[in-house]
Amino acid sequence: MSNTKITPETEVSTTELACVLGITGRYIRQLAEDGQLEKVSKGRFLLCESVQRYVKSQSKEDARSAEEQRLEKARQAADVTLKSSKAKIAKLEADELQGKMHRSEDVAALTEDLIYTIRSSLMALPGRLAVDVVDAQTPAEASEIIRREVYAVMSELSHYRYDPKRYEERVRGRMNWETNWADDDE
Q1: Mean pLDDT across the stretch 117-141?
Q2: What pLDDT was estimated at residue 60?
Q3: Is residue 87 very low, low, confident or very high in pLDDT (cuts 50, 70, 90)?
Q4: In the chain, where are the structural domains located?
Q5: Residue 39 pairs with which residues in a beta bridge?
């Protein structure tokens, strides 16, 4: 092959083709067994056709490899996002159990309790005032009686406090945990 012109019909041996492609003869035989290269006779290949087939197979592998790399990067990014989200959820749950953070539905329920306390105090006010106001001699005296009772209600409501234990009971109830979970460990 040293001084011959290469044509589409030029045949080469396995070793020569391996040398041209920069791979081993064993890999050439493997490619022929896989059907990626076609032999014209035992251990002989058409040089041009074999080089073109090899180049096409390599570009397909490169394209597949690039797609696999893109998919792998996307999978890794999704894994990072998932792990980050799980860590945030775990931190929020820990903060909630420690009473550092409250869920909106629990705050709404505790606020609702406060509103019902205020409502019941205000609804009781007319009954508490009716007899005293009727006995009042002047409108100023009636006004003073009403003012005193309103201040009493406001004073009573001012003692309404956030109770962390009550909140903890709500959280444990919502999560179906026992209130005395620490006692179970003993």
Answers
A1: 88
A2: 76
A3: very high
A4: 11-68, 103-185
A5: 45
What is the C-alpha to C-alpha distance for residues 118 and 159, in angstroms, rounded to an integer?
Answer: 12
Which of the residue ranges 27-36, 55-64, 123-132, 135-144 would you say has the lowest mean pLDDT? 55-64
HEC letters along the chain: CCCCCCCCCCEEEHHHHHHHHCCCHHHHHHHHHCCCCCEEECCEEEHHHHHHHHHHHHHHHHHHHHHHHHHHHHHHHHHHHHHHHHHHHHHHHHHHHCCCCCCHHHHHHHHHHHHHHHHHHHHHHHHHHHHHHHHCCCHHHHHHHHHHHHHHHHHHHHCCCCCHHHHHHHHHHHCCCCCCHHHHHC
What are the beta bridge partners of residue 45?
12, 39
pTM for the structure as a whole: 0.41
